[in-house]
Design brief:
The chain is of the alpha+beta class and 137 residues long. The protein has 3 helices and 6 strands; from the N terminus they run βαββαββαβ. This is Gamma-glutamylcyclotransferase AIG2-like domain-containing protein.
């Protein structure tokens, strides 16, 4: 399934992994919001944890068609995601995301905290109020 990516941390425009992974490989980069999730601070990067009522601010990234497969593999490696691996830090899931420019809702890939990571974060993690990693204090 070819979907845009919703990014909310180091892959956002202006952040270090954007330049390393996305620069020159995207057709569109637009502000957006993921509902039903909150952010927790990680060791230099955030985790989105699915939770009703939460909102995460980020960007919708639409890759160039000829870069899609390579980019999907590169992002899976960056996020240490492998389908079915119990040691994943993140899970790549398809979720509805709201595009800020026009309020349209579309499906996008989102890397959310894997279940074991999410449980640890809920128990003793530092939640980022407001759902915007860039505005964390």
């Amino acid at each position: 399934m070819t979907l845009p990516f919703f990014v909310y941390g180091t892959l956002r425009p202006g952040e270090p992994n954007h330049d390393a992974f996305l620069r020159g490989r995207t057709r569109a980069e637009e502000r957006g919001r993921l509902t039903g999730a909150v952010l927790y601070d990680g060791p230099g990067y955030p985790y989105a944890v699915e939770e009703p009522g939460g909102v995460v601010t980020g960007d919708l990234i639409t890759p160039l068609p000829d870069a899609y497969d390579e980019l999907l593999s590169a992002l899976d490696r960056l996020e240490e995601y492998a389908p079915g691996n119990a040691r994943n830090l993140y899970e790549r899931v398809s979720r509805e995301v709201v595009r800020d420019a026009d309020g349209a809702t579309l499906r996008a890939w989102v890397y959310v905290a894997a279940p074991a990571v999410a449980a640890r974060l809920r128990a003793r993690g530092r939640r980022i109020g407001g759902g915007d990693w860039r505005a964390r204090g």
